[in-house]
Amino acid sequence: MVKAAILEDVRKLKIVDYPEPKVEDNxxxxxxxxxxxxxxxxxxxxxxxxIPFPVIPGHEWVGIIEEIGEKAKGYESKGLHLDVGDxxxxxxxxxxxxxxCYFCKFMPHKPSLCTGRKVMGVNIxxxxxxxxxxxxxxxxxxxxxxxxxFKVPEEVPPEVAVLSEPMAVSSRALERAYAPGIPTxxxxxxxxxxxxxxGAGAIGLLAVATAKIAGAGNIISIDMVDERLKMAEKxxxxxxxxxxxxxxxxxxxxEVKRLTNGLGGDVVIEAVGVPAAxxxxxxxxxxxxxxxxxxxxxxxxxxxxxPHTICNKDMDxxxxxxxxxxxxxxxxxxxxxxxxxxxxxxVVTHKFKVxxxxxxxxxxxxREGIKHALVG
Length: 376
Description:
Distance between the termini: 13 Å
Structural class: alpha/beta
Shape: globular
CATH architecture of the largest domain: Alpha-Beta Complex
Strand content: 15-25%
Number of domains: 2
Number of helices: 11
């Protein structure tokens, strides 16, 4: 039997035992090493997203292959051979989208827009076999024909590999600032350009790290929690702005301009998820700059903005919704390159056993730590 934490209804988490599934020819049964607990999981718990209960939450995991079907051995996304004992991470969204909606037909380059998209640990019920279709379980079952499976490089430890999914979100947000753009005339992200990141939670911190690896110049992180501000510096921030000291929008805008020769950020990334941060991010962005919104995966409400500011700045406002499956390959390479430069292994600050998933939720609600993970 395999222990799993299931969300059987809003704010109702339960520990259950599921039978270990038979591994089909295209299947992989992996031992979960670490699975992240993220903001989406909290939204599921609070009932902010419609899902087919019961669900095993968790879509950010790394694990070791315990059993694998013969066909599945050839399904590694980069063409590598898979076998028992390999450490893998998995893109939680299916690689075969509905193929019928407008976005599948006319925007295949943006698969995350598919209206029929299914994501392990989010909107797939655990009620039917093989049950283990989310990360908050001791073992996870993956149909390797339906999901992108990536072998983790030997240089990347599990404490870092578990960040593949959130770093895919963060790195794709930065990449949104590449295009449309002309770096030679200061449009779009380019080498040496300033990056301002609002929020130093996991997504914001990984955006800082990505910007550092990608060759950004002046990197500025904004938050109001000591632990997060210190971590932002470790991830590569050149400056941190403590919202407790710079306690108005006007103060923070003035400080960003001071740190950017009076201009504002070339690229500003909003990773807070509070509507007021969106309005402030527009003010933090320089004329001709790019503002990327990645913090709002659910609907917390609206905020007033002045359209004249957007027009006057001739700026781009870009939304970033998840990532293409190929982003995991990008991220694992970034992790390999960063291993001696950025302590990504420090981002996970709290670990809990699967049976203690409720403690993780309660601790996150108390705003303790940065990134939480369950251990298998």
